[in-house]
Specification:
Blueprint (H helix, E strand, L loop, with lengths): L2 E7 L3 H4 L10 H17 L3 E6 L34 E3 L6 E2 L14 E2 L1 H11 L6 E8 L4 H11 L3 E10 L5 H8 L2 H4 L3 E3 L1 H12 L1
Parallel strand pairs: 1-2, 1-6, 2-3, 6-7, 7-8
Antiparallel strand pairs: 4-5
């Protein structure tokens, strides 16, 4: 049977919590905290995680958020179900990193692509594409979740996006469904709902 691995993208309080720099009302946050996390705890499932360090300087993007050492950097995924180490990125695509990333006491360097380091992380934490299907949750479906789906798909993974586990930046649910139904997204991933994901998980346990 193939392994199913949950992967959370940018579930950080600058996006998910009131007072965060990019907070919007995202219904997926409540679903993850109130339904997905308890299910994982009950069934011994772990969630891999990619988070962001969006301090300046970042050429091409003037945002400054998810600063290490601040509440906005903190994750909504509980430590007890989190796979370590996490991967910290500094741009929308997960292959971008930099010196001092994730360290609140460092001066961050300019972003650069490190395909080798990301490959090592994903093979060790997620598994190889011949054996592992990846289910993405997190924020946002119109940016970082999409970029991650593209990167994993091009590496040969079967990529699923959990309908209830994602939202667009705006939080608007009509916009969400338009994105999930778009042909662009379907080039890289398959949309799955919570009911069918639980069935798939149970099937792979037997």
């Amino acid at each position: 049977m193939r392994k199913i691995q949950l992967l959370s993208i940018d579930m950080q309080k600058d996006f998910s919590a009131k007072g965060g720099k990019h907070y919007r009302n995202h219904p997926n946050v409540a679903f993850i905290k109130e339904s997905l996390v308890p299910y994982c705890e009950k069934n011994g499932l772990k969630i891999a995680e990619i988070i962001s360090d969006y301090r300046q300087p970042r050429l091409g993007d003037k945002d400054d958020s998810c600063n290490p050492g601040t509440i906005g950097y903190e994750s909504e995924i509980p430590e007890k179900i989190k796979l370590h180490p996490i991967w910290v990125k500094c741009m929308n695509s997960p292959i971008w990193t930099r010196t001092g990333i994730g360290n609140p006491n460092s001066k961050p360097g300019l972003p650069y692509e490190d395909t080798k380091a990301f490959s090592e992380w994903i093979y060790n934490i997620i598994g190889v594409p011949e054996e592992t299907d990846v289910v993405l949750i997190g924020l946002t479906i119109d940016c970082c979740v999409l970029c991650t789906a593209q990167e994993l798909s091009m590496r040969g993974y079967n990529v699923f996006i959990l309908n209830e586990g994602v939202d667009p930046y705006s939080g608007n649910q009509d916009e969400k469904q338009q994105i999930l139904n778009s042909s662009i997204l379907k080039n890289w991933t398959t949309i799955i709902d919570w009911k069918n994901l639980k069935k798939l998980i149970k099937l792979n346990e037997n």
